[in-house]
Amino acid sequence: MKNLSLKFIVAITIGFVFSCASDIHENFLKCLHFHNSTSISNVVYTKSSSAYDSLLHFSIQNLRFSSNNIPKPLVIVTPLQPCHVQATVICSQRHGLQIRIRSGGHDFEGISYVSQVPFVIIDFINYRNIQVDLQDRTAWVQVGATVGELYYSIATKTSTLAFPAGVCPTVGVAGQFSGGGYGYLLRKYGLAADNIMDAHIIDVKGRFLDREAMAKSDYVKHPIPESGLEGLWRLFYEDGGKGVLMVIFPFGGRMGEIPESEIPFPHRAGVLYQIQYAVHWEEKGDEVAQRHIHWIRKLYSYMEPFVSKSPREAYLNYRDLDIGVNNIHGYTSYEQASIWGFKYFKNNFNRLAHVKSKVDPLNFFRYEQSIPSLM
Question: Are residues 156 and 201 in the same domain?
Fold first, then answer.
């Protein structure tokens, strides 16, 4: 089977914060209408909108973040065209609001739709067109599409081409590809991100540009001894381990041929396999949730002797706030962010911080584990 390269349409919103107006909510809406007077009303949902609650909860895949005490966005914007994203970026900067980007809603820590400071959500639920070009062996995929929709679009056109993305069909392409994106074709063709040729972005100034313009993870580099596996098995039978999922995904092949510095994803040569730890529960209540969270932290601690070290590496798409976070308010230093940054990106973290300093020096686009500015 041949590999299909991918051109990926993605909206990246970065910028800086101005002083808040006396009425952030109303002035933000006025700003949106000023920049898109003819079309923005059809894609803006406030807390008074009848569809607000259903839209907010529609894509929340992790019910830890669906309770009433979780912070809610002032506004949800569901863009149909780039100008809607551009207006949201510009107006969020102007009125001191943070932005959360949602595409699919798979988020172990809820970062794509929760914030501890006033925020808006850009939800790409309507931005999911896919165009497959068999002659060029490429595809354009809009940021709101899911992995399953991409696979289906390819399969309806050809039985000889494929794309090396993930195994869960409901995961959004935006989050998966930006974090790497591994799947069954990994050893032959590498990550999804290794096969992205181009992207359309919206920058801090609202310009439309192209290339020319609760889970945890580990990486294993040495075989786990039999005694270690026996202890792991005993943990699974503890009370909090009910609903556990531990996925071991082999690396090697093409992954070992691509340099660590090729893209931000650095986990390449020497990795035997990646481990995903997850625990699921259906019972409600904070006590139940804390019991399961305590258990998975215990499992993560148990595995420490058997996995990568200095740093103990982690996969960005299995976001884990336990390994470190930025300050919610105020400045976060490079040294502080390095605690979690080197686990995800290894030595690429320094390069990412320098890029961040050039394109977003005042750190408008930020969240609990966003790349810090060196300014």
Answer: yes
